[in-house]
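Researcher: Quick one. three chains, 1688 residues in total.
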Amino acid sequence: MPSSSSLPKLSLLSTLTPSSPSRAWLTAPHPTLPLLATCSSDKSVRIYSLTSFTLLSTITGGHKRSVRTCAWKPNLKGESVLATGSFDASVGIWRRYDTDDLNPKPVIAPVDFDARDENIDEYDEDEWRFAIVLDGHESEVKSVAWSTAGNLLATCSRDKSVWIWEEVGDDDYETIAVLQEHEGDVKCVAWHPEEELLASASYDDDIRLWREDIDDWGCVGVLRGHDSTVWCVQWEALTPNIYGEAEKLDVKEKWMKRREASGPRLLSCSDDLSIRVWRRNPKEKVPQSRLSIIRSGSSEEDWIEETRLPVVHSRPIYSVAWSKSGRIVSTGGDGSIVVYEERWRHSGTGTETTMLGARRDTIDGVENNGEPKADEAEPMEDVTGVNEAAEDANGRVATSSESGSGPHATNWVVVAQIEGAHGVFEVNNVAWASRKVPTGEGILEQEDLIVTTGDDGVVKVWRLEI
Amino acid sequence: MSDVQRYLLTVGPDRGKALDIAQDTAKRLESQQTSLIEVVQSLGEFINDEDATIRARTIDYLSQVVGQLPPTFLSRQQIQVLCQFLCDRIEDGGAIGGLRKLQGLGRFNQEMAITTFRALLEHFQDLQLRPQAQRLQILELLNDLMSKHRNALKDLGDQSVVGITDLVSGEKDPRNLMIVFSVLKVVMVEWEISGHAETLFDSVFCYFPITFRPPPDDPYGITAQDLKSRLRDCIAASSYFAPYAFPQLIDKLDSTSPNVKKDVLQTISACARTYSISTLSSYSVTLWDSIKFEILNVQEEDLAEEALVSLQAIAIRLSQGTESTDLKTPIARFLRPITKECNGQLREPQHKQAKPVGQILSALGIASPVAFFLIVKAVIPPLNTLYQDADGIGKQRALLEVLVQLLDSAIAVYGTPSIPAPTSTIENPLVPFKDRLFELSSQALMSTAADEVSFRVVALKALLKLCLLRKYLQNNEIGMAVQYFDEIVLLEDPSGKDDLKKEAIQALVELSKIKPDLIMNITFPAFMAKLPYSSPANNQDYLITLEGLAQLSVERFVSDTLIRRLLNRLDAVLQNDGSSAYPQAILSTLHYVLSQRDLPQDPNLQSYHEKLVVGLINRVVLASIGQNPMTALNEDTTLEILGRIATMIIRALDEHKQKSVALQVYSLFAEEGTFIPVPFRKDTPRLQRSTMILSTSLMAGVGKSMALQYTDVDNGSIQRLLAELVRLALAESVPPIRRTILRQIGLITNKFLPAQETKDVFDYLRNLISGLQETTTLSDNAVRVVFWEAKGLVLRLAQIEEVLSRLLWLLSDHSCGVASARGFGLLLAPDEIISKENGANIRLLAKQKVFNICIPIIAKDFRNAETSIKPNYLIALSGILKYTPTEVIMQELDILLPLLLQSLDLEDSDVKAATIQSLSIISQESPKAVEGHMGSLVSRLLKAASDPKTNSTSVRHNALRCLRVFPGRVKDSTLLPYKNTVVRGLLGVLDDPKRGVRKEAVECRAAWINMDEPQSE
Amino acid sequence: MSEVLNANPTIRNASDLPSRRRQGNGQSSKTPSGLFATTVPSSAYIPDPFLPPSSDSDESSGDDDSVEPIDEQEIYDLISPISDPEHPLTLGSLSVVNLPDIHLTPTFPEKGSASPLTTLTVLITPTITHCSLATVIGLGVRVRLEQALPPRFRVDVRIKEGTHSTAEQVNRQLGDKERVAAALENGTLLGVLRKMLEGCENLET
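Model:
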């Protein structure tokens, strides 16, 4: 764990080649292999190697319009499965046996502009098999996500609905839920890291939580607060990671306890230029009578906005990602990449703020953009205050005392920032990727790579040096 | 065997032979060898044969025989018999043909016509069941009867009306319909049809609208338009149709197809022209109510046009023969609702529907004096009030535009001073409003904020039209207008108001045609007064004045005066020495004015020669030798302009005069001893050397047959002069002087050198060239001389192969290769001195020859050349292509394209620009040719379009132009692979520092983006 | 769209629309309109071909290193010729787009020239407050600008305050990158847009 004084540096590691000839939407790192899948408006998905940083293969012919999104199925051995979602309203499932050699086929570097077009089709498509197409959505599919176990696939679309599919057999999927409470496009879906709990973000400014309640999927929570389209939601890892040293151990204790009770937090970014962290208000464990289970709304969850990250972006924030090591990275229309750390709060704030202040100066833009609103990020009194009020209204007092100390315990700071990450182009997506790094005691897996995808069709890999 | 038998046997296999047989019969009939009776009897059994074909052929035989007889051979009785005979067998093939022949004969009379007609009606109730060919025959017969024996059928009255309509009803074939329509039209126009109007109308209107598309290989060449217009004539044939026609036409006006609408409107117009006034009048308002929508909510411009035509047609018809402005007349009743509607629309003059109001009013106003009168009476007063109360200039402007359009029709109706219109007893209704209108438009023009350009432009138009309107404004009022226009041109700060100034000048030009005196007395003094007597220090306002004057002098009378006054002013200006820009401008003006005249016919030509040529040139000479120095006259630019004037005037002089000029091209009309000509003289001072510019223009003006100074026998041949000029050129370092000497060399070689001497000059040239290649210290001047000399020879196709091959050698020369490469750009470049007008020897084939000779050699040598000099060939190539006609270039594409692609990689921006030029032409003319090279073309053009550091603006611009040519011309399948490359590649160019380039990039990119992906829905 | 929503809109006269030439400073007019160019034929002064090429021959561009930045007028010229989906009229003449409603501002003012990003805001004024075509028109404007401007521009197309009943939704849609992108892949809609943009080609400036 880095000492609070040393700040990570963000540097460009590589630009994947050849890039998509037109806008690329999203890049999904493979859960286990050094592979990246990039969705492009040229109706194809490009598979790049994270070791050689070059194109391995291109998946084409499956979709009639832009491929907007894709996701790797987790927990597989020997085979990779990729789900793709397209503006043509369909979802595709693709399979490929993992080959040992992930080295790229020799690519004729495009000397002449026109060479590129031919090269694309050069890779043998056959290695990627089109397994099945999932039809059902009425308009553009905007996000797909596999549940942690991999048995469930969630998809969402401009048709305002979220669909949940279950794999009941080889390439055989069954719709088990069509969730339609959202009042606008559903932009993003994300599964809780351990529970079968799904979060969805929408054009209607809301985030909704869904889970199965007595074999029937329903909405168990609405997270309101954003003032405009919520572009992306992401879950925290199972175990939190707070940087720096806590001042008072009891505070830390309390915080950890509460975190344990409420579980992984939810992260959201929006057109309203804010990035927010949401926390579940755990119910007190009252042994419930069997009857009470039937009581509708028993599965209702109570979530509160825990904090907002310092405001750095000046254009819509399209994508955020939360690393296992607890860092958050965000990007959007202004083309900046920003990395945040959660730190134990120091009451004195002497050293810290000066240090941060110093840091801020070196990060252009934060000064003016960040400073004023940054306060919002610090004291949570008002926010929690509001929540307490709300809670009081709900007639529950128990949590208030404890939750009071919670927010105070930590605060988020900007630790690294890159502007114009893709030149003048907008950046549509950011993701964390891990890689195996040889060290003294052998290969060690560390997640310090950031992958960004832009309107220029380019995918860039950045290294966060700690 | 009887003729008929032989006929029957042969007609099947060989109709031609059969016809001869019939002809024999006819001959023998004529020569009395046989009689008609015998012939008819000979038909005997065949005519009753149960086989229809036999019967038909038999009748056919008879018909053919009759056909071969002279028109007057058969007697009335005989015809009578035959007619009856054929009518009885009318259903047998051939009979119709026979009858057609019979009815053509002189003695075929009314009764027979009727018999035939009746037979038709009786036997062909089921006409439409018969094959098209037979129907056609029958209709043709009917048509014949209609034209030759019309009265007979007419006398049958109803019987024929009903008969014909029944007979032809249900016809579908276009050829037959053409006949049907014309037959029916006759009935409609000439028969008394009141009882059958509806039947007749329906019989034709059922075909409306005609949607007929002739088959691609239609042998009869009948177009939809033919059918449409014939049908239209029918519908418009009789006023009786009105009750059926108008409602149904109006109905069809709701059609969604523009074509149908157009057809309807044209038909309405046709009816309006022919229907009786009273009939038309009872529908006129209804028509307006439905037609107006086509105009008020314009969807298709040309439909609105048609609609206006219809309204106008109605107005014209309704006002025929009436000069009465009474409000009860049909025309008045027609116009009332229209003017009402228009006045209503004008309350919101800026709304879409108000736009067409002006058009409607003027279209109707033109219709007739009466119409115009009524419209003006109804519209002008409210228009005036609206104008006064209008809040905001936008509204006023819209109203003013309507006024202008009304004035247009006023001029159409009452004419202009120069073009009188047919006189009318109705006095111009605008007269009462004269003062108001004049005041209104004058104020709008002169008392509005200066930056309200568009508004003032309209006002100016209004004022001008008032001036042009015949017998309207008083001279003094027009005079005031002229003054306003003068002010605008002269006094107003021009910034941002070019439009207004242009309009003002144009207005003055217009007026100078009808009121030259006003221009002379008002405008001229005003303009001249603005011209200073000495060069102003640092403003150029005189340019605007001079330009105005120049444009004004279209009328001879006017321009005479102008030339005189400008000359005087020039004198004065030259006296008060100053900057030369001003006198040069005056000279340019003179040049412009003279260039507008037909000089050879100009009575003043002589005095122009004296004053402008001899006079001024003399002063130049004096100035050059230091007597009364005038800096203006010492400047090369001044001499250039003066030279142009001289050339123009001398060209117009008669041979005798030209001779004397030719002998003074170098002594320049100077008195003996005052001035020593430049040639054959050592170290002449610069100022005097400049006079060579004048010498050049003098010899440019004189005919090729003239003997130039120094070229007559005693003083030596042309070649000696050429040699001397070469000496001067090699030594000359002042660019303009050097250029003019080089031009002389070219001009003399091309124009004055006798054909038999070209060989010697070529030898001379060859030595020069070899000299060039030997000397290591190359002299650019030498290269120049070589190419100008060569230009002279090449253009007249003298020794062209040798010349060119020598020049091409130079390309591989290390010292002078580059300069020579550029030289090729000179060979075919248009030149104002060595030009057709100046009688130069410019052969049509020159360009093609140069191309055909050079291209193969360049292509070959380029391949073998070492890299350092390869560019020379490409530069030379671009120099040639620049002036080669497209069709010629097209012949050698396979050789050219690879070369052109490589020259795109050169640094030289001129070459690049030229190359891209050729490439875009090629791509336009024959897209196929470039298809194979798309890849390298696209990438190179993108490169040339990008990077402002290395590529000049024009290169970038042209590259984009060229890139934009492909979509649409080259087939998509070839281009689509590059779509992304281009669309992306141009992203950067969208940020080019130059607006013009960006604009081009935007359009180019749009063109590529809009290419459809094959699979896209 | 057979049902015309606003049959009789106010129309601005073409010559009254803002244009570069009419922006005062008549640079063109001080020097004469080249009437005398005829008297001095260019061929008389063919640049001496033997001299190394002139940096740039065509006069239109003037000196090559002078930069003409993209300004509001240029933006206006890009979008004013777009034709209204229901009239054969341009957005300019219908005053749907107006020069004063076009604003160019640096996306990061505090960074000055350090950042090339420029935010372009275009406020459109529908002909009537309930014009259901507002979205299509806005989309047309946005598409035209995205195709015609370099990527360093951030384009915001919005309905002008108080000129439209459902401005809020329309703005949201026009602002939604994802929706705009998807719209451009919708064949029928694309057809309508292309028709609107047809007028933009081969314009004289």
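The interface with chain A takes residues 107-108, 110-111, 114-117, 150-152, 154, 172, 175-179, 181-182, 185 of chain C (CB under 8 Å).
Researcher: Thanks, that's what I needed.
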